[in-house]
Amino acid sequence: MKVSNPLTSWKARHNTATDHNGTTQHIEKHEGYDDSPLPRLTWASFNMGILVSMGGFIFGYDTGQISGFLGMVDFLDRFGQRHADGTAYFSNVRAGLIVGLLSIGTLFGALIAAPIADKIGRKISIQIWCFVFSIGMVIQISSTHSWVQIMMGRWVAGLGVGALSLLVPMYQAETAPPHIRGALISAYQLMITFGIFLAAVFNYAAERHQAGKKASWMITMGLSFVVAAILGFGIIFFPDTPRYNYRLGKTEKAKQTMSHVYGVPENHWSVHHELEEIRIKLEAESEKGSSFHEWYSMFKAPKMFYRIALGMLLQMFQQLTGANYFFYYGVTVFKGTGINNSFVTQMILNGINFGVTFYGLYIVEHYGRRKSLMAGSAWMFICFMIFASVGHFSLDRATPTNTPKSSKAMIIFACFFIFGFATTWGPMIWTICGELYPSRYRAKGMALSTASNWFWNFMLAFFTPFITGDIDFRYGYVFAACNIVAGIGIYFFVIEGQGRTLEEIDTMYLMGVKPWQSSKWEVPPLELMDEKTRRDIEATNPERKVKVAAPPDAHVSPSNGSHHDASDKELESAPLH
Ligand code: BGC
User: Fold this and answer.
1) 17-38 burial: b if 16+ Cβ within 10 Å, else e
2) Cα–Cα distances in Å, from 460 out to 44, 328, 344, 453?
3) Any transmembrane segments, and where (predicted)?
């Protein structure tokens, strides 16, 4: 099996340019600049990757802990309601609100974080949101008997989680050298699943050793502070992103940061090239109208309505795969199957989710998005059909211990399901949303699709207890049906992005390439594109306007006749061989 080396492909692209005939040429030197190869990884970028990924960990850890709390004796005793005989229980409304309010908080956090970060900076934003998150934890941990306090605490913590879920990838994308950006985003995804897994491990250990005591849920909850503190204090030692500093006019600082993180001298070609990109994009931004106008024009821009709707639907279907049914309510679900320690089951499911995400990160580049997602949908459909059928028809739901084989079968198919999710729809939907929008509208498009993820996340968290109360494990059929619809949707609407530059993907959407033909489609050189497509490309990618119209006075090499200065400007639109 062949694994593509991101550094090689990046270097290949950065050393090529298209000449007048549309032939790709290799450019060896950029005169006046240091052209030495970029180090693969520097300590600075490694440390940044680890530290900033803590944001992903917080996201996952908070998602993962609640499932266990709902099954803990002390948590139930303090925050549940009472039956006439004095036994404690959670009503559907209460369970749904406690679980779901975090998602409502994250929805808001994700929507407001970006404009605030534009005003005050990425670094200070990360610190502030870590603080907000910690306040949310204090509200929860200090609650003795008020479930409303727990719910509101989850809402406040959610604001922090949602904001960090947007800021962390933004910080990484704006600071990391291009060839490790993909890997860093993957590290972020891994940290989410690692957080979910560790929450289950701590829940298990705490319930085992502290059952019936407040400490059973407080230990897991309290450990969130440690991570928030590491991120909040640790970021002090890191500079703000080059893009943000450049925007404030601190160009020297931006250059220093890049040279430090990239591990090259300040006059390195890649530093110069990235700074140029930043300058051009900022110039284009300053020509934009009011922010209201930008939002309005986004929906009018070529193929943008389609792509916004697609991103939001993909995130909706990611939630409707049913994964969070297990992550949020797993302990309760497995209690219902008569498993004696549902905490162990939860730990196994979350462990699988974490472990196989590594494999998911590999297959996304190896088999492509479309094939993997369609296969994932079919797989998850089968798993849910079996899970639901066994749960409804074969399991003795009143006394599950009478049907131990059915319980086991359900756990096995839940594990199979998680395997399918974590290798396909879990990580890949984030990848697709990251490459779906043109540069001008990328941040807004991603904010909308992320908001859709959290909205549906809330809907499921809130309504699941009601639905399972009414239709028991037949709920699985609903997810099975959604998985089939989602798989068909991928076939008809999603363009294959494997091995393509962001600009190529954009061009394919603009040219209306049929998604099912997209993986084999050859991108024509810009010169051969029709006038309308070129205009559409310019409207949604301000920096490419300059590329298309690369000045004729650009440095021309006598030997090969290609544009040296324009090389990197043109190459993004050049066909890749
Ligand atoms: C989803 C979350 C889910 C997590 C599980 C993410 O991609 O958006 O809702 O809890 O995967 O690993």
Assistant:
1) bbbeeeebbebeebeeeebeeb
2) 40, 9, 24, 11
3) 41-61, 95-116, 128-148, 154-171, 183-205, 217-238, 308-331, 343-364, 376-395, 410-433, 445-463, 475-494
**In terms of Cα–Cα distance, which of 57, 54, 61 is closest to 203?**
61
User: In this structure, is residue 178 part of a structural domain?
Assistant: no
Distances from the Cα of 467 to the Cα of 49, 73, 418, angstroms: 40, 24, 21
Ligand 1 centroid–CA 502 distance in Å is: 24
Tens-place pLDDT, residues 306-333: 999 999 999 999 999 999 998 877 777 7
Task: Quote the mean pLDDT of the chain.
Answer: 81
Number of domains, the chain: 1
Q: Which helix (H) or strand (E) holds 89?
A: strand 88-89
Which two structure tokens, joined as six digits, stand for 88?
Answer: 């404690």
Residue among 57, 319, 324, 354 to mutate when testing ligand 1 (max atoms within 8 A of CB): 324
> Which residue's C-alpha comes closest to atom 4 of ligand 1?
426
Find out whether the beta carbon of 450 lies less than 6 Å from any atom of ligand 1. no
Q: Which of 102, 314, 318, 358 to mutate to test the pocket of ligand 1 (most atoms within 8 A of CB)?
A: 318
Question: Using alpha carbons only, how large is the chain's radius of gyration in Å?
Answer: 25
Alpha-carbon gap, residue 127 to 52, rounded angstroms: 11
Looking at ligand 1, which residue's alpha carbon is closest to its atom 6? 426
Cβ atoms of 22 and 153 closer than 8 Å: no
Please check whether residue 10 lies inside any domain of the structure: no
Say yes or no to pLDDT of 26 above 50: no
Residue 574 has pLDDT above 60, yes or no: no
Residue-number span of the structural domain to which 524 is assigned: 303-541
Question: Rounded to the nearest 10 degrees, what angle do helices 291-300 and 304-320 cross at?
Answer: 90
Beta strands in 385-511 (DSSP E): none
The pLDDT tens digits for 516-545 are: 988 888 877 766 777 777 777 777 776 666
Quick one: how far is CA 275 from the chain centroid? 26
Give the residue-averaged pLDDT of 161-175: 83
Q: Which amino acid is at 364?
A: V
| Confidence check: pLDDT of 417 > 50 | yes
Query: Considering the domain boundaries, does residue 222 fall inside one?
Result: no
- Cα 127 to ligand 1 centroid, rounded to whole Å: 24
CATH number at residue 390: 1.20.1250.20
* CA of 324, closest atom in ligand 1: 10
Nearest-angstrom CA–CA distance, 117 and 114: 5
Annotate 533-556 with three-state secondary structure.
Answer: HHHHHHHHCHHHHHHHCCCCCCCE
In a domain, 568, yes or no: no
Distance from residue 257's CA to the centre of ligand 1 (Å): 32
Rounded Cα distance between 259 and 247, Å, is 18
Question: How high is the pLDDT of residue 25?
Answer: 38
Q: Assess whether the C-beta atom of 103 lies below 6 angstroms from ligand 1.
A: no
pLDDT band at residue 368 using 50, 70 and 90 as cut-offs: confident
Whole-number Å distance, alpha carbon 524 to ligand 1 midpoint, is 37
Distances (CA, A) of 189 to 49, 194, 456: 12, 9, 19
User: What pTM does this model have?
Assistant: 0.77
Token pair, residue 135, equals 């306040």
Is there a contact between 199 and 64 (Cβ–Cβ < 8 Å)? yes
- The distance in angstroms from the start CA to the end CA of the chain is 20
